Amino acid sequence: MSNPIVTSLKILASNTAADKGLEVVELKFNPHSKPITIQVQIQKKPKKDVSLDDCAQFSELISETIELSKLINEPYLLEISSPGLGDLLQTDKDFKTFKGFPIEVLFKNNENTKLTKSGLLHERSKEYLLINIKGRISKIPREDVITVQLTSPTG
């Protein structure tokens, strides 16, 4: 038997996506995580990749739709992605779009040892990558950064 909240969320997401020329590829609902997690994968019709802007715009629309529906009466985490959207952040636009998102940074230190740090993307300037690690801003020189990858806060 299907969960009625999941069924309603799928209908809301599909209708919201269709209005923007998108379709929902997959919707996952995890009521056991704190906060509740809703993961939605979208793509353009017919089966074309979406841009980061498409994901951001859909996130705003579906968030508002869920709030108005009153289906979920407690805090929740909404994750929007695409089956074809890469996890690596590379362009200035990527870094602006995903400000505040969880990331993992692979970088080298002064001894050329590879290290990783995880936190929330704060900013990428001309000189540094700034990440928020438990409320503290950590600066990593941009020339030391090897990769910056989006991660899921749900593991």
Could you list some keywords that capture this structure?
8 strands, SH3 type barrels, alpha+beta, 155 residues, 26% helix, three-stranded mixed beta sheet, 2 domains, 3 helices, five-stranded antiparallel beta sheet, single chain, GMP Synthetase, Chain A, domain 3
In short:
By secondary structure, this protein is α+β, with helices and mostly antiparallel strands. 26% of the residues lie in helices and 39% in strands.
Describe the structure.
- The protein has 155 residues and is of the alpha+beta class.
- It has two domains: 4-81, GMP Synthetase, Chain A, domain 3; 92-150, SH3 type barrels (Roll), CATH 2.30.30.
- It is built from three helices and eight strands.
- It has helices spanning 4-19, 52-69, 92-97; strands at residues 22-30, 36-44, 76-81, 102-108, 114-124, 128-133, 136-141, 145-150.
- The strands form two sheets. A five-stranded antiparallel beta sheet has the order 7-6-5-4-8. The protein has a three-stranded mixed beta sheet with strand order 1-2-3, covered by helices on one side.
- A hairpin with a 5-residue loop joins strand 4 and strand 5 (114-124).
- Helix 1 (4-19) crosses helix 2.
- It starts with a helix and ends in a 5-residue tail after the last strand.
- The model has no long low-confidence stretch (mean pLDDT 90).
- It is found in: Cytoplasm.
- Belongs to the RimP family.
